[in-house]
């Protein structure tokens, strides 16, 4: 197992799984902990059979782990997620030491026999609290990450009929919310009612999941301990009840519906005494009454709800601009404050009447199940409207299995704006060292252009909107914003500057047509300034504009020295340092409206230089479309959305496509295309878009896959390339390397561990050009002429272009690739 406090260079001795304290979360605010034998020695001596089963005999590497007990709840969640999103630990079958594998995300990628020399970076890693998990794009993801990230499943010991787990590892996982007791914050569960088929697709090895009936005796001994008696008895009772039901009945019986931080309750029938108790707490917190269940029958509701034209819709919002629908009837044209979404009182609106919509499109729709009063909306709905900035409310009744107090939120229901292509589109972005002001500059650009009605203002918190980004005050994942100048429409990518997130920076830079290099006048050129510029050059960005930020905090002489240093660096990296535009200003002054000569005026000058210096790219519209996947999202009620920059071709709604990569090929159909939350009739090469795909779940698609026209691209794992190896002065490696070194290969949005073979000489020296044969551990989309970067740990070794595609590796060659050096030496000795 993993010890979080071990030093970085110290080997970790393996410990049996059964002797580790295990904390299993299976219900809101209920934690079942099975203590180690050292803590309850007498108890375990008396009941030896109650020890947790030892699963160390798995045919796969067991990398499940637990955080230290002294961690807070938030630290534990982050720690667990780090283990799933940034590498795994594995134990060497030779020296028995534990090694950290930063580029292995799935334990099933490891062979049954694993050795230290298979590790790419040859380094140990600390198990301290991680700096950040994955970016949390929306509220649903936040709940998912908080309650499901890295969860150890209760089925591992007890074989329960359901268990919370990682969605990415369980394609058939269902998602539920459950409100526990009288709390207003529910737990988000990812639930699987496992059987033999489901168990084989689980995160943990199939042999670790035993049927519930085989574990009843093991659980009985735990029930004797008073500490676990009440909670386990309740869980066992539910498990016994669920065991008797078929799978579809289990799903119906053990499903929950709730809303994050809203006025909600479980779908079970609630006693009047419970409602009164909840109402007191609810009124004390929100200062309004909670809705009381009506004594009328559901059938009466159905008749009343459908008697008026069958369109049970109420729109509540500010009437600055009409957004009409053929099913909506306008009855209120009174103007109200834009920020007060409840200025039209809900109790004055009747079913099928509506007010005009606000100037900004509403971001969600509320569906109230079984309204208790057809002529008005209750206070709970009014509260939800205010909390969620909603303007669309639909009231439906009589749905089976749900009571009148259940409320479900659906996001992004409002009619989307249509993107009008009136200007040429160009992709730019900010690169540079951490804390030099890249995100602040991005926010300042939107603020200055918003004053000219050319953009929507985005604050710093709107761009870095993930909780971990707000906590640390840095950018972690790339963020995208939209704006336009007088001559162009721009998609702007804000890249992370921290050295730990170079992988995300490469993904963002690969989508740019030009870049804005941000350098702080107070620091000058820093390590990531040099590395970002080097990577931008390798990826193929030919035009870079420089913005010297924070000039309000440095004297003129310092600013001039920084400019000279930047121009020298640009020339060193292969750019024309004398002709590169350099603008001096302060993004913070522009954002706060201070000192316009270095604030808004500097931003305006920067945008003019970007318009003039970065040419409009020539797009390949005639070729079959190709979309490298940057990220994947699940939209409740809609489906799975794939985002990325369209590399070439044209993409329309209804287009059939293939998703290729990571050893998979899946066929699907595009059912919708959007760019910056606006619908697109036709996406063209260069557009930063989101595509809604049919019949594919979020967990089936990963970053690095490619969506393309069927039959036009294939995944390969054996290619030849022309590569330039960087010298030490250029930021590369100081020592030469020989064949069979394992590097990390970055191309498009994917990265993959790659074995390098030198066909024509023994070694490659830093600063040399070489022809290399690259063998990828996974088949990825590769084409002749495709650019890539090779990295080893924190170093960029070189850059190259794929020149030839060879036949994919055979199973025998792939096995040799996985087994590595020892297998080659063994084969050589036999000869």
Explain the overall architecture.
- The protein is of the alpha+beta class.
- It is 25% helix and 24% strand.
- It has five domains: 232 residues, no CATH class; 144 residues, no CATH class; 192 residues, P-loop containing nucleotide triphosphate hydrolases (Rossmann fold), CATH 3.40.50; 83 residues, Translation factors (Elongation Factor Tu (Ef-tu), domain 3); 116 residues, Translation factors (Elongation Factor Tu (Ef-tu), domain 3, Beta Barrel), CATH 2.40.30.10.
- The longest helix has 18 residues.
- It starts with 21 loop residues before the first strand and ends with a helix.
Structure in a nutshell:
The protein is an alpha+beta fold and 831 residues long.
How is the secondary structure organized here?
Blueprint (H helix, E strand, L loop, with lengths): L21 E6 L2 E5 L6 H6 L26 H13 L2 E4 L6 E4 L37 H10 L6 H4 L15 E5 L8 E5 L4 H4 L16 H8 L2 H18 L3 H7 L18 H15 L11 H9 L6 E3 L14 E3 L21 E2 L8 E6 L9 H10 L3 E5 L10 E5 L5 E2 L6 E8 L5 H14 L8 H4 L3 H6 L6 E6 L4 E6 L7 H8 L5 E6 L6 H13 L4 E6 L6 H17 L9 E3 L2 H6 L7 H14 L12 E3 L2 E5 L3 E7 L4 E3 L3 E6 L2 E12 L2 E2 L2 E3 L3 E6 L12 E3 L6 E11 L11 E2 L2 E7 L2 E8 L5 E2 L4 E13 L5 E6 L2 E11 L5 H9 L1 H10 L1
Parallel strand pairs: 8-9, 10-11, 13-26, 14-16, 14-17, 17-18, 18-19
Antiparallel strand pairs: 1-2, 3-4, 5-6, 7-11, 10-12, 15-16, 20-29, 21-22, 22-28, 23-27, 24-25, 24-29, 25-26, 25-28, 30-35, 30-37, 31-34, 32-33, 32-36, 33-35, 36-37
Family: Belongs to the TRAFAC class translation factor GTPase superfamily. Classic translation factor GTPase family. EF-Tu/EF-1A subfamily.
Main location: cytoplasm
Subunit structure: Monomer.
